[in-house]
Design goal:
The structure holds two protein chains of two kinds. Chain A is of the alpha/beta class. Chain A has helices at 42-49, 71-76, 93-103, 108-121, 137-149, 167-182, 194-200, 218-223, 242-247, 269-282, 297-305; strands spanning 2-13, 16-27, 31-35, 57-62, 65-66, 78-81, 155-159, 186-190, 203-208, 211-216, 229-235, 252-258, 261-266, 287-293, 307-310, 313-316. Chain B has helices at 2-31, 35-53, 64-76, 80-89, 93-97, 103-131, 140-161, 169-186, 198-204, 208-221, 228-253. The radius of gyration of chain B is 19 Å and the shape is globular. The chains are: A alpha/beta, B mainly alpha. Chain B: It is found in: Membrane.
Chain lengths: 318, 255
C-alpha cells in the first residue's frame, strides 16, 4: 500500500487554478521531497493532503484512507510539522506535548512516556516546565517537531524543518529525521533548501504553477540536464575584476563567485580548464584548487521552474 | 457484528469527547486571565448593568436575575472571539483544524471553555444575591438548568462569530457586539417584554436571551412569560442552530 496516493488533483480558488491535475504517489518508508517556488502550489497540496482544505476534484488517499471522506482515519496516522512553529507560548513544553497527544487520542501513560522520550531526544527535557514564550526559535522548532511525533505517526509532513535555525537545532532535527527514516516512517518534506532535499530525499517532485514538472530520484533528475556542468576554481589572489574576466572566457556560459571560489558554467569542462590555466598564467595567479562539478539539484530546479539567477540570488522570471 | 460497530462508535465518541475537553482545558489555561477577556466577560456586563439599574426604584435583590442573564451572555461569548483570531494569527488554529477530530468536537471544545468561564463568573451575582441581598431562589433545579443551557448557548454563539476568518480580535468583537448589545434591550432584561410595543415583543421571540432570562426569572420569582419547558426547548434549538451553523462556517471558510 502506498503512503500517499494523489490522483488528478485540481484545486481552484475562483478563477485561479492553484493545482492543475497533479498525480503522484509516495511509497511507505520513502522520504519524498516536494519542491517549488513560492506560490507554486506546495502549501495547497499539503493542506489538501492533511484534510484542512478540500480539492475541487480528484482524490488523495493516506494509507488507503480517502482524505476527503475518511478524514479522521487518514489523519490518525500522520504527524504534521508546519512551517511556522505553531506551539502555544503560554503553555509549558510539557503541556504542549500533552495537548498534542490528547488531540491524537494517545492514552495517558503512553503520552507521558512518549513526551519524556521526545523531549529528551530534542534536548528540551530540562526545560519541560518552562513556558514556551522564553524559548529560542530553534527550541520552538524542536518542540514543534516533538509535538508532531507524539502520536508515533507512520507519515510525517515536514514543512521547512530547518529554515533559519541555529546549527545545534539543525543537527538535532536532521538526526531525528534520519532515525525516523530508518524506523520506516514515511517523510513528506517541503523545503526551500534544495541541498537538504538532495541529501535527505529518495525522490523529489518539482511543482511549478500548479503542475508537477518533474518527479524522480535527485540523481536521475540531475542526469536530465548534463549540459549544465561547471568548474569550480580558486586562486591564491582574488580581485574585483576576476569575475568579469572569467565570465568573458570563450566557453564559459556564466560565472558566479561564491566565497573564495569561482563557479564557471559550461558545456565543455575540459576546454574551460585549459582556458582557466592560461588565464592564471597570464595573470601570475596560482590555482589553489580546481574541481569539475555536475549539475546540482538546484540547477535542475532552476531549469525546470523557469527561474533565473542573478549573482547568488534566484529570481522568478514572471 | 452490531456489538463491534457499537464498540467502535463508543470508542470514537470517547476520543471526540476527550479531544474537545483537551481544547477546552488549553483555552482555560491560556485565556481565562487575559486582560481583554476579564474586561469583556466580567467588567463589561457589570458596568452595563449598573448603568441601567442605578436610579431605578427596584430593590437591588430583584435585579439579580437580570444581572445573571447578562453576565452569562457577555462572559460565555467572550473567550472564543478572542482566542480563535489570536490562534489564527500564531497559526496554532491550523493545528486544531488538522487534528483527527470532527469539526463538531472542535466547536464544542472551543465553546466548553466559554461555557465553564461564564458559569464561574455568573456565580458572583448569584452569591451576592444570596449573601448580600438575601434574594430567595424558588426553584433551584430550574436555575441550574437555565444557567447551564444559557451559558452553553452563548458560548456557542461566541464560537460561531469567531468562525469569521480574521486574525483581528477587534473585527470579531465588533460584529458580536452589534448582536449582543441589542439583545439585552429586547429580551426582557431591563424592560419587561409585556410592556414592549408589539414589534418589540415579536423581535424578542427570536432572541435566545429572552428564553434564558425568562427561565432565570422563573427560578427566582415563579413568574415567567413562557413555561420553563418551552424556554428549555427554545434554548436547545438555538444551541443546535448555532452549533450547526458554526460547523458549516468553519468548514466553508477553510476551503
Amino acid at each position: 500500500m502506498q503512503a500517499i496516493e494523489v490522483s488528478h488533483l485540481i484545486k481552484k480558488f475562483g478563477s485561479l487554478t492553484a493545482l492543475n491535475d497533479i498525480t503522484f504517489s509516495v511509497g511507505e518508508g520513502e522520504t519524498f521531497g516536494f519542491l517549488g517556488p513560492n506560490g507554486a502550489g506546495k502549501t495547497t497540496t499539503i493542506r489538501i493532503l492533511t484534510g484542512v482544505s478540500r480539492p475541487t476534484s480528484g482524490t488523495a488517499t493516506i494509507f488507503g484512507h480517502d482524505i476527503e471522506h475518511d478524514t479522521i482515519a487518514a489523519r490518525q496516522s500522520m504527524g504534521i510539522v508546519s512551517e511556522n512553529s505553531n506551539v502555544y507560548d503560554d503553555l509549558t513544553a510539557w503541556q504542549n506535548m500533552m495537548f498534542s497527544a490528547e488531540l491524537y487520542h494517545v492514552g495517558r501513560k503512553e503520552r507521558e512516556k512518549k513526551a519524556e522520550e521526545l523531549l529528551k531526544k530534542f534536548e528540551l527535557y530540562n526545560r519541560r516546565n518552562d513556558k514556551v514564550h522564553g524559548f529560542s526559535k530553534g527550541m520552538k522548532r524542536r518542540l514543534t517537531l516533538a509535538m508532531g511525533l507524539v502520536n508515533s505517526p507512520r507519515l510525517l509532513f515536514l514543512d521547512e524543518p530547518t529554515s533559519g535555525l541555529d546549527v545545534q537545532s539543525n543537527i538535532i532535527i536532521r538526526d531525528v529525521v534520519a532515525d525516523l527514516v530508518l524506523e520506516g516512517v514515511t517523510v513528506f518534506l517541503t523545503t526551500h533548501n534544495i541541498e537538504e532535499a538532495n541529501v535527505m530525499c529518495d525522490r523529489v517532485a518539482i511543482i511549478n504553477k500548479g503542475h508537477i514538472v518533474a518527479i524522480d530520484a535527485p540523481e536521475s533528475l540531475k542526469k536530465t540536464i548534463q549540459s549544465v556542468q561547471s568548474i569550480e576554481v580558486s586562486f591564491d589572489h582574488n580581485s574585483a575584476d576576476q569575475l568579469d574576466e572569467l565570465s568573458r572566457l570563450s566557453v564559459v556560459n556564466r560565472a558566479q563567485k561564491s566565497g573564495d571560489k569561482f563557479k564557471l558554467y559550461t558545456e565543455d569542462p575540459s576546454e574551460v580548464i585549459n582556458a582557466v590555466t592560461a588565464y592564471a598564467n597570464t595573470h601570475n595567479l596560482k590555482v589553489i584548487s580546481i574541481t569539475t562539478l555536475g549539475p546540482s539539484l538546484e540547477d535542475v530546479f532552476i531549469h525546470l521552474t523557469g527561474l533565473q539567477r542573478t549573482g547568488e540570488i534566484i529570481h522568478a522570471i514572471d | 457484528m452490531p456489538s463491534t460497530d457499537n464498540e467502535g462508535l463508543l470508542k470514537r465518541l470517547s476520543c471526540e469527547i476527550s479531544a474537545a475537553w483537551a481544547i477546552a482545558k488549553k483555552d482555560m489555561r491560556i485565556y481565562y486571565f487575559k486582560p481583554n477577556i476579564i474586561v469583556s466577560g466580567l467588567f463589561f456586563p457589570l458596568f452595563m448593568f449598573l448603568a441601567f439599574a442605578i436610579g431605578k426604584n427596584t430593590p437591588p435583590g430583584a435585579l439579580i436575575p437580570g444581572l445573571i442573564s447578562i453576565t452569562l451572555l457577555f462572559s460565555a461569548s467572550s473567550i472564543e472571539p478572542v482566542s480563535i483570531p489570536i490562534e489564527r494569527r500564531v497559526k496554532t488554529f491550523e493545528r486544531l483544524l488538522s487534528a483527527p477530530i470532527s469539526l463538531y468536537s472542535l466547536v464544542t471544545g472551543e465553546s466548553l471553555s466559554g461555557f465553564l468561564y461564564s458559569l464561574g463568573i455568573a456565580c458572583l451575582p448569584l452569591t451576592i444575591g444570596i449573601i448580600v441581598f438575601d434574594t430567595p431562589i424558588l426553584n433551584i433545579p430550574i436555575l441550574v438548568v437555565s444557567m447551564v443551557l444559557t451559558a452553553f448557548c452563548f458560548a456557542t454563539l461566541g464560537t460561531l462569530f469567531a468562525a469569521y476568518p480574521t486574525e483581528n480580535v477587534g473585527e470579531v468583537m465588533s460584529m458580536l457586539n452589534t448582536v449582543r448589545l441589542p439583545l439585552i434591550f429586547i429580551s426582557g432584561v431591563f424592560i419587561p417584554i409585556s410592556v414592549m410595543p408589539r414589534i418589540g415583543q415579536q423581535i424578542a421571540l427570536v432572541s435566545p436571551l429572552t428564553y434564558g432570562n425568562d427561565m432565570i426569572e422563573y427560578a427566582y420569582t415563579g413568574k415567567s412569560l413562557f413555561s420553563p419547558l418551552v424556554d428549555i426547548l427554545a434554548v436547545i434549538i438555538f444551541i443546535l442552530i448555532f452549533q450547526v451553523t458554526a460547523n458549516y462556517l468553519y468548514k466553508k471558510f477553510n476551503e
